[in-house]
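Q: What would this chain look like folded?
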Amino acid sequence: MTDVTNLAADVRAFTSNVFLVTGDRTVLVDTGANFDVVSKVDARVDSLDAVVLTHTHRDHVGNVDAVREAFGVETWGYDPTLPAVDHELGETVRLGDDEFTVLHTPGHKDDHVCLYAPATKVCFAGDLVFAGGSFGRTDLEEGDRGTLIRSIDRLRETVDPDLAALHTGHGPSVTDGAYATVERAGQAARM
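A: My prediction, written as structure tokens:
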């Protein structure tokens, strides 16, 4: 059974959430920044199989080199021309015991992806949408509000209305009303 743990839940530094996904394939979704993620991984598992990046803003990839070195793993992301990305993601990626669809969702950053497992109705949303129906910033380089709105719409059209869990890049994961959270983010982005 796939288990998801946010290793950055108690971190007070500027970082993203860092999700350790265990099961058949142990994967770190994003590495965070400005804290010792290696010791947090070491405390829970003996090894990692891969790192999957939702996008390459510094708060999500600041610990990439430390994780690569400590665990001898490679990283997967949307754009392999970027230093933090070793390999390009395909149409799907295995996290834990589940197969996740890779959905390109630019607007916050050009290389942003969301990961969605139709079988378990779980989504890693990166910085596209957040708890409470907020959405990712578009005032940074590569940000674009219209593109972000289209990406939120694509996510809403892809995920099941019974979405079980929405794991976001910052703040708490959403396990109650996750689909409505995506809908509210789309509405808020249009205002």
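The radius of gyration is 15 Å.
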